[in-house]
Amino acid sequence: MIVGSNADTLYMTEERIRRQVTYEKAKLAYKEMMNVYPLDLKNLAGEIWAWIKDYEGLYMESNFGRTKSFYGGKVKILKPNLNMHGYLVVQM
Asked: How far apart are CA 83 and CA 15, in angstroms?
C-alpha cells in the first residue's frame, strides 16, 4: 500500500497502536497464566492425553491444552510462548 495522504498515515499509525495494545494485553494475560501453569509431569484432575497426529511417539496433547514431549528419550511438558499475534504456541 502506498501511503500518500495524512489520512492513510493516520490510519496506519492507529492500526499499529491497536495491535500493540492488543499484544500488551495478551502479554499480561500470559504472565498471569504462567504463574499457575503446571509444567510438572503430574496429570491434572480429569486430564486426558492423546497422541498428536503425524507425531505419534513424539508428542501428546491434553484436553487442558498442555503438550507433552517424548523427544530425545526425555519426557517433559512444553512451555507455551506468546507469538506476535497474541496466541499461545509451543515449539515442536
From this structure: 18
Q: Closest Cα partner for 37 from 80, 90, 89? A: 80
CA pair distance 55, 59, nearest whole angstrom: 6
* Cell matching residue 88: 499461545
Q: What pTM did the predictor assign? A: 0.65
Instruction: Name, in order, each residue with C-beta under 8 angstroms of 61's C-beta and a sequence gap of 6 or more.
Output: 49, 50, 52, 67, 68
**Would residue 9 be called left, alpha or beta, if left means φ above 0 and alpha means ψ between -120 and 50 degrees?**
alpha
* In the chain, where the domains are located: 6-89
pLDDT digits (tens, 9 = 90+) for 19-44: 777 778 888 888 887 777 788 888 88
